[in-house]
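yo

u said u wanted the structure for the complex thing, so here. seqs first:
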Amino acid sequence: MTTKMAIGAKDIFRNQHRLIRFIEQSIRLCSNQSLKAAQQQQQQQQQQHQLNKTQLDGDFNISKSLNSEHWNAVPEPVEHDPDVGQQFYGNQLMVRLASPQQLQPKPDRDEDLIFGKQFTDHMLKIYYHKSLGGWQRPEITPLENLVMHPAAKVLHYAVELFEGMKAYRGVDGKIRIFRPNMNMNRMNLAAKRSGLPTFEGKEFIKCLSRLISIDSEWVPHTQAASLYIRPTLIGIDPTLGVASSDSALLYAILSPVGSYFKSDSSGAVSLLADPSYTRAWPGGVGNRKMGSNYAPTINVQKKADAKGLQQVLWLYGETHDLTEVGTMNIFMFFINDKGEKELITPPLNGLILPGITRDSILALARQWGQFKVTEGTFNMPRVCELLNQGRLLELFGTGTACLVSPINRIHYMNQDLYIPTMEQEKPVHETIRTALTDIQYGKVPHPWAVVIE
Amino acid sequence: MTTKMAIGAKDIFRNQHRLIRFIEQSIRLCSNQSLKAAQQQQQQQQQQHQLNKTQLDGDFNISKSLNSEHWNAVPEPVEHDPDVGQQFYGNQLMVRLASPQQLQPKPDRDEDLIFGKQFTDHMLKIYYHKSLGGWQRPEITPLENLVMHPAAKVLHYAVELFEGMKAYRGVDGKIRIFRPNMNMNRMNLAAKRSGLPTFEGKEFIKCLSRLISIDSEWVPHTQAASLYIRPTLIGIDPTLGVASSDSALLYAILSPVGSYFKSDSSGAVSLLADPSYTRAWPGGVGNRKMGSNYAPTINVQKKADAKGLQQVLWLYGETHDLTEVGTMNIFMFFINDKGEKELITPPLNGLILPGITRDSILALARQWGQFKVTEGTFNMPRVCELLNQGRLLELFGTGTACLVSPINRIHYMNQDLYIPTMEQEKPVHETIRTALTDIQYGKVPHPWAVVIE
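structre next:
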């Protein structure tokens, strides 16, 4: 055990050094052009009012055009409540490896992977007990069942939250994760909202990197797949009061995944838009990645399935505003009233999960400056109007699990609306997908992609 | 094992016979006066437009005035989806008793009991596996930890729901539960809404009765306490897709409890009414007892605590309608515009949990016919108006855990509203509490109270 721990610690330090080296390189690469220059460029391009597709395809060397400070802008880290107690640190990590007999066979064909059904050999666990001073030492163990009291808060009051991340095996063989600080900040915001203890995101990422490193052979050797990472935080106090958690478990499991959604042969999904169901509402928690946002969607998804539709389009209010699609953010690409091409996504008004893919797409598209980029509300009547006038070009969902998911049909008020997303010559959603995967799979160096050993 | 099972089955049959005998007796008692006569009486009394308190106190022989068909009116049982598969039955129950060494000491003083911190020696478990045909055999085991895969749906997507019931030790030494069919129907409605399998409520009650019977010495020997029953249903499939559960666990744990809420010395609670938080909304699941309704309330409760307030008053919409208080339904007793005394509670419009205590209070108060009884929306401006005019008499929460919880203060828009609930000479909330506890503790025979061995 001591030997393993020593090896663990050595590896962490080595990884840290590599990480720091990589970030330094990225900063050097990026500092060639300043943020100001990029902003000027963007303003000029927005004045053109015309999408030049050739220019869009060619103008794609993202990592050289903005400095890393801008790219790595993340929300302010959550301030810990004074009574959270001690934090955990990556250099305290204990590792208990699976025995050779416990190791699972890896899937034969990456394309057969079903989302979240198969898991790797190890997991990460960090317990929190207020009565023991706060966060305990992080540990990596073989993947094993959790043991908990039947009164554990997570089983009764949905005291639980999670994140979705991915590790990608790049064209250079290196494994990368994507903007992990964003996940950590979002997770801490959800913890605060749930009466769960907050933690130091960067320390969790150190532990997670070690876990991925140990199970690195599970990261698929193809761009058609990746290793899905599921950090989870649950309240485990064995008491039935509806109250903050004095005991919690922060853990992570890993699952090799192919594509998330079933889609038709074209790769597009069809949606049920039923205004009688609401996902989130003002004064609620629709902008936090808490488990409680998901259970109420399952029965609605079942109704979509029964109609042969693949996902639910979540509408809000009497105006039937589009908010999210399935578990994704939604984007519309259209020709606006000024005749400009415009990419729009609902604003972060409390009803919308602040997606990291969403944020990345907005940042990329603004940098490209090839079309107008807006965070604004749009509703079903507007969608119908644009569709009738031939001005709706593309509609797509975005998220970590699916990346970009084009939409070709909406079933709304007993009508089928056919969306021409798949009929565009050079669709924006494809350009976006390429740009993101180029970063994630290391085809272009970018500070968003963090290499781990 | 076989012997224990045989004993278990024998006990169940004996219990069933006793139950049937009791219900038959109750029906005989109740059929003396018909529903119609009671309704006529109620109409006459409502025409009086005056509350005669003496009459209210004297007219209290509930069990003889309505027939049991009326009293036991419950929502239609949920229809099982065809693919739920086989059901479980009480006569299949397997019992594995705790060893003498495993038995826990019972609490010394019932009044010291903290809600949901201590549990009895045994629990009930019923697994569901679609791949094994549906529901499996019910089993009673020593209280033990649950073992589940870290990807279990309950830990990620809040696929969980529960009920709150109580077993009361009556003045005659018999143990009673209260309107259990209502809990079972509500639980099945929540299961449908959560993509969890439905079950036969009456079979679950048979199993639960046996569990209470085994742990009967845990039912406190006082009217100041009771045995809280927590039936729980969770989705346990070890897969990360947001989807219906093909594996589930229905279980029950028991906890001896005193009073639920902290209150001031007068026994009343103070409330935080902050319109920036919403508990439930149209198109959501606020009317189902799902875990997902609770996690988002914890942080708001913390804000109430920080202000020295005991509970949260949940408002809805721009008009600040009163919906619920903490985890309770809310009732207001006031003098209406016609000068009549009136008891009002928000209607079951989808935002309100259909409380069994709520339903019971409405039925009792309507039978008494001493004041007007209304299910209707009322808002904070109305509360302020009534208060200013001296027409607001009482405000109280109701629920299984607390029964009746009087409210003496609301902190709203930076103002403290003092409610004279505790200043009434013969308060209605006390009359209601007495009426309900008289039934629950067997002081008056009533079909709502079901005796178990």
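The radius of gyration of chain A is 22 Å. Residues 180 and 205 of chain A are 7 Å apart (CA to CA).
cya
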